[in-house]
Amino acid sequence: MADEPQGERQADCLFCKIVTREVPATVVRETETTIAFRDINPQAPIHVLVIPKAHHRDAATLATAAPQLAADVLREAGEVAAEEKMESYRMVFNTGSGAGQTVFHAHAHVLGGRGMQWPPG
Ligand code: 5GP
Ligand code: ZN
């Protein structure tokens, strides 16, 4: 996985399949470079994932390989929050399996609609 080509569609990647619509999702926003869709297992009343359409394995790898695309994801997370009328929200990038990353295609979790505790678990 570490040596997979960054930026290229991966045949076995769930989120690449959401980009191509092979796997259906409830899309809330789409741009030329990003898609935002509702998490299938929401952890808050509002839980949206924002992904780059291009495959990068995690957020830091994305920011190194394609900084403008990383900025697109961050901006779109803010647009989702505004559309969903969230004044406060949490943006999370689980990075590595030890931190709970299960899908190795960079994604921002945008969580809100309830109070958030700190520190997170
Ligand atoms: P991670 O655990 O990698 O940070 O986040 C992956 C997220 O993708 C999880 O919150 C999980 O619920 C969500 N997820 C997994 N499979 C699907 C799916 O098929 N559709 C959607 N919409 N979300 C999914
Ligand atoms: Zn992918």
Structural commentary:
With 121 residues, this protein is α+β, with helices and mostly antiparallel strands. The chain has a single domain, classed as HIT-like (HIT family, subunit A). It is built from three helices and five strands, in the order αβββααββ. It has helices at 14-19, 59-65, 67-83, and strands at 27-30, 34-38, 46-52, 90-92, 108-112. A five-stranded antiparallel β-sheet has the order 1-2-3-5-4, with helices on one face. α2 (59-65) packs across α3 (67-83). The chain is globular, with a radius of gyration of 14 Å. The model has no long low-confidence stretch (mean pLDDT 95). The chain binds guanosine-5'-monophosphate (5GP) and zinc ion. Zinc ion binds next to α1. Guanosine-5'-monophosphate is lined by residues 14, 23, 25, 37-41, 49, 94, 100-103.
Bound molecules: guanosine-5'-monophosphate, zinc ion
- Computed over alpha carbons, the radius of gyration is 14 Å
CATH topology: HIT family, subunit A
The helix-and-strand class reads alpha+beta
- Our measurement of the CA-to-CA distance between the termini, rounded to an integer number of angstroms, reads 27 Å
Supply the CATH architecture.
2-Layer Sandwich
Q: Reading side by side through the largest sheet, how are the strands ordered?
A: 1-2-3-5-4
Strand content: 15-25%
List the helices and strands in order: HEEEHHEE
* Biggest sheet layout: 5 strands, antiparallel
Form type: globular
Strand runs, count: 5
Low-confidence stretches: none
Q: Count up the helices.
A: 3
What's the rounded overall pLDDT mean? 95
| Name given to the CATH homologous superfamily | HIT-like
